[in-house]
Amino acid sequence: MALKDLFSFLFQRSTGEERVAQYVIREHDRGRPLAEILEDRYVVNRLQSPQQRARLLDRPEIIQAVGGDMAEAAKASIAAPGGS
Asked: What angle do CA 51, 52, 57 make, to 5 degrees?
């Protein structure tokens, strides 16, 4: 077994996170604000911790769809006290 195969699980993303990323992109393309989308039950129920939602905003496809500045602002609001 190759060394990269041994640790490949560290770099795999869950299919649940993949589906949430697709949902966020689709809803953003429909014109909804990112902060509102991140509060949807669909997102919160699947990515329950603020850390999981912040990690979602690090995905390249999310950054490309919503813009780097917007993703960083949303990440900051998640991490801020009083953020969800």
From this structure: 95
pLDDT digits (tens, 9 = 90+) for 17-71: 999 999 999 999 999 999 999 999 999 999 999 999 999 999 999 999 999 999 9
Residues 6+ apart with CB under 8 A from 27: 37, 40
All residues at 6 or more sequence positions from 66 whose CB lies less than 8 Å from its CB, including other chains: 24, 25, 28, 34, 74
Cβ(55)–Cβ(24) under 8 Å?
Answer: no
Predicted TM-score of the model (pTM): 0.77
Residue 80: strand, helix, or coil: coil
